[in-house]
Amino acid sequence: MKCLLPLFCSPLLAGAGFAQDQKPNVITLLVDDLGYRDLGCYGGPVKTPVLDHLAAEGVRFTDFHSGAPTCSPSRATFLTGRQHRRTGVYSVITERLHRMHLQESETTIAELLKDNGYATAHFGKWHLGMPVHGRDNPTPADHGFDYWFGLVNGPGPSHRNPTQFLRNGERVGEMKGYSCQLVVDEAISWLDQEREGGEPFFLNLWFNEPHAPIAAPDEIVSQYGALNNQAAIYSGTIDNTDRAIGRLVARLEKLGELNNTIIIYSSDNGSYRQERSGELRGKKGSLFEGGHRVPGIIYWKDGIPGGRVEDEPAGSVDLLPTLCGLIGIEKPAGVHLDGSDLAPLLTQSGNFKRHQPLFWMGGSSMVMRVGDHTLFASSTAKSPIDSKAANQLTEQIREVLGDDLEEVLGGMDLRSRLFNGKLPHPEAERLRNQLRDMYYFRESWIPELKKGELGRVQLYDLSKDLGQQKDIAKERPQLADRLKEQAAAIHRSVLAEAPEWPSAGEPKVTKSPATNSPRQPAATGTKTPADPKKAMAATLKTMVDAGKLTEKESMGLYLAAFPEEEERLKKLRTSEDLAKLIQSGKFDSAPFEAVDLALKQENPKARGDALSAAFGRLGGGVGGVQLDAVIARMESLSEARDRDFAINGLAHGLVSKDPEAALKWAKAISEEGFRNRVVENVTRRIKP
C-alpha cells in the first residue's frame, strides 16, 4: 500500500453538475490484440453495435494509443499512468522465465479509487505476474482489487470452455461457454450479489479476445466467412465480445447506474493481423503506429458531452490522471506520472496541455510523439538475440510445415503466426517454442539495456505520411536533433527509475530506486508522513549528481509531479539567492541555463553576482563545456557591465582550477582589447 497525499483537487465535478457524494462508477474494458481497423465505428469489418453506440454517445478518439505494443507492459501502464519499465515490467511476463511483475509499490487505479471509497473488482486476463511457477508474486488483491476473477494469462485451451480461471486465488476448473461471456457473467454476478449498496464501484474487465488461440460461436463466425477461416473466427471473437459488453451495459441500465458510469474501452496493443491495422505501418509488437494505435472510447452520459470525434493524441497512459480529474480526487503524490489529465478536453471545461510527450519503449528502441511528428530512435545497447540462429529456426519450421504452411498461417505471415498460438505439427511446435524462448526478454539483459543511449533516429510526419513510409530525418535535421534530445532525457529518466530484477536462477534481490518505496495505507492523522516533495527532490538530485539527468530535466520531472511548485521556484530563481544556488553547484549539469537565468535578473547586483557565479563555475570546468564555447557565450553579452562580471567570474574559475593554464589561455585570445582585460584579471588573481 502507498501513501496517497494531496497534490491538488480538481473542481471539474462542480462544472459537470455533480456533488462529491455522487461519484461516478468506473468500468474499464480492455480487449486483447484488437486492431485499429476492426470495429465498425473505426471503419472495420466487424459488427459492433454496442461499442458503436457508446462511441456515438461518448467521445471516440481517432489517435488513441496503448501503453506499449505488447501485453504485460501495456497493462502496467494502463493501471498506473506510468511507463511500464518504471513499474518493473520490461516485457511480456512468463513466470517460468521471469521474476519481474508489477511492483506492489506502484499506485494503481484500483488502489486510488479504493482509498476514495470505491468497491473494486477485476475480471479476466491479468498477465502482470502471479504466484505460479514458484514465484512469490502479488495478485490483483495486492494491487487494490477487493474481488478478482482472473487468469494468469490465457484461458486455455482457447476462448471456448476455458479451464484456467481463478476466483480470488482458487482455481475454478473448466467452465462452459466463451471467455468474454463468462467474464461478463461474473461481473454481473458481482453487481447483483457482492456489491454493497450505495458505494461507487470500479470494475476492470480485461477480455482475452481476439488473442489467439481463438474461438467463437459458429452462428457468429458464419457471418464473416467459413467456420474454419481464421479471419472469420477472429472477427467472430470481436463480435461475441461486443455482445457480452452489451449484456453488461443493459444490466447497468436496469440498475439505474448507466448514466453515472464512466466507461472506457480500448485494446492492449495492435492486432497480429496486418490487414486489421488498416493504413498503419506495423502490427502487434511493433513500435510503428500499427503496434500501439488502437480504438479509444470514453463514455459518461452525465459528465462528458457526447457525440464527438476527438483527434487529440491520447492513450491509456492518461487514464489514471484523467480519472482523478473527472472524479475530483487527488493524484498520487511523489509519483512521476507519464500520462496527462484529459478531463479538460473531455468535459470541454478548459484547455488541455500535455506535460510530457507520449512515448513508447520496446526492446532497446523508443518512439516519441510530438505534434504530427514521431521520432523513432534505436539504442546503442547491444542486442543479445542471435538473429542468424533465429532465422535458421524460422526456416526449419517452414520446411517442417511444408504443404500445410498456408493452411496453418491462416492469412497471417509466418513470424506473426509463430508468436500467436500453437502449431498443429509436433515438431514444428517444438521448434516454435525454441524460437520463442530466444526472443523472450531476460532479466540478465537489464544492465546492458541501462547502459544504452539513443543512437540512430528516423522521423515521420503523420499529417502527410500516416503509413510511416518516408523518413525525413535528413530533410529536417534540426527538428530531428531537438526531438532526439528531448527523447533522450525521457529515456534516461525511465531507465534511472526502472528496477533491476535478478535472473530466474539468482537470489531474489530486486534493486529499486529510492522513489519506489512500499505503499502504505492512507494517512489517518496519527503519524506525519514523509514530505513527498523533499523525497522526490532528493532522488532527483542523486540522479543529477550521478549524471543521469541534467538540472533542467530534473526540474521538468519535479514540476510534472508538483505543478503547484512552479510559481515558488520561479520566484526563487529570480531572487538574489540565485548566485548562491549557482555557486552551490545546482546548475553544474546545465551551466548555460544559469547564465540565462542571471540575465533575467532585474536587480543589478543580483544580475552581476549571478553572472559572475555562473562564469566562475564554467571556468572551473563544470558541465564539460569547452572554453571556446564559454568565450563565445561571454562575447554575446550585449552590455559591457555584464561582460565585466562574466570576465571576473571566468578568471576566478580558471585560476582556481589551473593558474598556469589559465594565463596561457588568456594570452592566446585573438581580440586585443578583450585579451588584455582577461590577462589583467587572471594575473591579478594568481598569487605570487
For the structure shown, list the relevant keywords.
alpha/beta; 12% strand; 688 residues; Alkaline Phosphatase, subunit A; disordered N terminus; 26 helices; 40% helix; 3 domains
Secondary structure blueprint with pairings:
Blueprint: H1 12-16, E1 25-31, H2 49-57, E2 59-65, H3 71-80, H4 109-114, E3 119-125, E4 147-151, E5 166-167, E6 170-171, H5 179-194, E7 201-206, H6 218-221, H7 230-254, E8 261-267, H8 289-292, E9 293-299, E10 308-310, E11 314-315, H9 319-327, H10 343-347, E12 358-362, E13 365-370, E14 373-379, H11 387-401, H12 405-409, H13 414-418, H14 426-439, H15 446-451, E15 454-461, H16 477-497, H17 532-545, H18 551-561, H19 566-573, H20 578-583, H21 591-599, H22 604-619, H23 627-635, H24 640-657, H25 659-667, H26 672-685
Parallel strand pairs: 1-7, 1-8, 2-10, 2-11, 3-4, 3-7
Antiparallel strand pairs: 2-9, 4-5, 5-6, 8-9, 12-13, 13-14, 14-15
Helix pairs in contact: 5-7, 11-14, 17-18, 21-22, 22-24, 24-25, 24-26, 25-26
Name the beta content range: 5-15%
Helix content: 25-40%
The structure class reads alpha/beta
Instruction: Give the C-alpha Rg.
Output: 28 Å
Distance between the termini: 64 Å
CATH T-level fold name of the largest domain: Alkaline Phosphatase, subunit A
How many DSSP-defined strands?
15
- Give the count of structural domains: 3
Please tell me what the overall shape is. elongated
Report the mean per-residue pLDDT as an integer.
86
Examine the secondary-structure arrangement and name the CATH architecture of the largest domain: 3-Layer(aba) Sandwich
How many distinct helices?
A: 26
Low-confidence stretches: 1-20, 514-530
CATH homologous superfamily heading of the largest domain:
Alkaline Phosphatase, subunit A
Give a quick account of the main beta sheet: strands, pairing sense, barrel closure. 11 strands, mixed
Which CATH class of the largest domain is shown? Answer: Alpha Beta
